[in-house]
Amino acid sequence: xxxxxxxxxxxxxxxxxxxxxxxxxxxxxxxxxxxxxxxxxxxxxxxxxxxxxxxxxxxxxxxxxxxxxxxxxxxxxxxxxxxxxxxxxxxxxxxxxxxxxxxxxxxxxxxxxxxxxxxxxxxxxxxxxxxxxxxxxxxxxxxxxxxxxxxxxxxxxxxxxxxxxxxxxxxxxxxxxxxxxxxxxxxxxxxxxxxxxxxxxxxxxxxxxxxxxxxxxxxxxxxxxxxxxxxxxxxxxxxxxxxxxxxxxxxxxxxxxxxxxxxxxxxxxxxxxxxxxxxxxxxxxxxxxxxxxxxxxxxxxxxxxxxxxxxxxxxxxxxxxxxxxxxxxxxxxxxxxxxxxxxxxxxxxxxxxxxxxxxxx
Amino acid sequence: xxxxxxxxxxxxxxxxxxxxxxxxxxxxxxxxxxxxxxxxxxxxxxxxxxxxxxxxxxxxxxxxxxxxxxxxxxxxxxxxxxxxxxxxxxxxxxxxxxxxxxxxxxxxxxxxxxxxxxxxxxxxxxxxxxxxxxxxxxxxxxxxxxxxxxxxxxxxxxxxxxxxxxxxxxxxxxxxxxxxxxxxxxxxxxxxxxxxxxxxxxxxxxxxxxxxxxxxxxxxxxxxxxxxxxxxxxxxxxxxxxxxxxxxxxxxxxxxxxxxxxxxxxxxxxxxxxxxxxxxxxxxxxxxxxxxxxxxxxxxxxxxxxxxxxxxxxxxxxxxxxxxxxxxxxxxxxxxxxxxxxxxxxxxxxxxxxxxxxxxxxxxxxxxxxxxxxxxxxxxxxxxx
Lengths: 361, 385
Hints:
A: mainly alpha, globular, B: alpha/beta, Rossmann fold, 2 domains, seven-stranded mixed beta sheet, 14 strands, 40% helix
């Protein structure tokens, strides 16, 4: 209701303006929402070129692709709110994916890495990857907070360290760098199994995988943490001005460490999901995941200026990148163009974002 | 408090260096290149014994890992001291590692170049080795452009190449697919339109092997089909003029293939009568990614489900297991042990002071270009034990 009241008030204010103000107001609104307008135009264009784009099966595909890259983006978002970043994210995903796969290989699989390992309960594996991810995050956060190092440097270092661990892990127990696959059916069903099916019209059904639900749950949890907890408020306070936060009694050290640790836990869950989704994990798994996650966050308005950002923005950013991926495939445009379009969108999104900030100043 | 912390950190750093040194194969860090092998034992500059420096393009590559494990064991057995370097998919890093290794007294270079098929890169490495008076054994990745054979291998002494004929895997894969289709044509042609709609997944746009596999995997299959009076293969998406989907990270990854295939399957299905009927992949990782997407959509799950034939290259352990389970159809085996064995033989020749190529007459060589020092390890078809 209040939204409608707001709109009514906005309209009333708009009517009261003179012609010049009206024009600048319209331009402002258009510019501030340019990314959404471009997205809608892009979707309409793609749909006219390939009618399949907006069919149920395609929409489910976009949703599940987006769901698969949400956890890492939700995690990295917190680091960006603190004006930082996290370059180790992708490698942590690689490490936790490897751990999940190694623990959940089918017992009759010929190349089982730990061949004597009994069936591990799935909750235990989830706990393990959250712990491993969280531990890397804890290290990141500790060095950032304790030594006032820029997260770029700290996470660059941990990225290398974690990659070394990943390579070592694949050499364990005579595995010799072979990919980890042959995952147990229980694991695969838990992640990629059918949650429910949507009828697609022509007698077919489209399966929605379980990991979509997990992504939704994570979005809910993160929304709660960001908006409804003291820790969330502290995070934004530290992000916008650490000195001011410190003076007003926020424990900057603890907040920074916790944000990075939470991010690490998210990468752990991402690794768990990716492990089952890709089903063949090797040392390259997780490569460059952080760049897409960071891109999704900044497109969604989580600003490197610090202290601003919304969970809904991150979700939108993730969807936007996935829509571009699917649309360019459906338009049969080569991957090279995808890089250019992605780059342009990041540039435009960040420019618009900064423009808002400069106007405020 | 701060001092204690600093002390602990310093101790940690020293410890990590020591840990590095105790390992016979010093894994070098990616960003800083070879200089970070700090803890590795430094060979004496006098160089009476043979000390080999082995440069891998990337430790994360599955096939290369198999070669590394086999080669480590064989060099050890031959009593040759060695150090492994990870080029981390970056030629600059590898060049720096080579410089460092030469200056620290290694007297045999075994190089898996990052930039595949570049004679310029290979020449630069060969020049460095020549200046240092050290023999070079290139392996796995091609060192010369197609049509430029001999530019490097013919121009230097004490140089050899152990690898595969870059086109061979593609040719072999194409023929294998062609023969498979002839034997199972009606079963594969799901929509009964008389032609087979295929999808192709490419690992790396700039890799010679990937380019040939992408080209010949289809062309040779077409040749087999048309000879038997069947129509040629048809790419499933007529609007895509490339006729392949590419891993844009150049990582030959299962993830890229999985995401492409999942997206393809949202438009193409058996019920729509336009299902992709054949999948050709540049390697087994990508094949496994495709199979993951197919399985999620209800294909390739054994009894009672439609199985789309999927072909790869490498014959990794997991691909073999998938073939045994009937979820994958065929692959081409790259012989990691065979390659490592040949490299170890050449290295032992260097160590014993005999001719670099002594005892290699039984191997297949590039006789077409008269290059006695270009040794090919043959590929093999693999469709199950």
